[in-house]
Amino acid sequence: MNADLLFYLLVFPGLLFTAILGLTVGWVDRKVSARFQFRVGPPFFQNFNDIIKLFGKETIIPRQGVSSLFVISPFAAFGIIVVTSAIVGAALFLNKTIAGDLIVIMYLLMTVSVMVILGGSSSGNIYSSIGSGREMLMLLADEFAFILVMLVPIVKSGYQLSLEQIILYQNQEGVFIASLSGILGFIAGILCIQAKMTMPPFHIPEAETEIIDG
Asked: Could you tell me the residue ranges of all domains in the chain?
């Protein structure tokens, strides 16, 4: 495999860069939430400590489930996220794109949700199946809206499917968010991303407020 490709996937703008950025943004989110609740909030390295502890935990494979799918699905979802971050980051920071990368990104983001559904449903646990069913409903609810959001930059850029071309078009003609359709698309896009990440108020698949988690 090409050394540059490995660097893009594993270091920048792929795995390492995305992990550090995501954990940092997560810390900011927790810190701001704590301030609104008149709390101090976690220290900066708390999320990093949590992820290290998570990797150190034992993997318990249920006997009554589909063990192969149960193990493979999280790794597949993780790999898809790494590839997606590398594609987006390469277009934003390195001006490197592939043909139709916007369509590829939409497909990959949908596949992550599918992997979550498969992983939960393959555990053989009824409550995990409930959570998987809710995740499926969320996917059906947000995917069509997400496709419509993606149509905004595609149409406004003259039906370009390349992130690089869309960015270049905005550099020349002005950013899309300066228009009404751009503002509406941006707001809808934020909501769709929240739904895909099962963040409040779209966190029903996690069932954090229920006595028994889904």
From this structure: 101-214
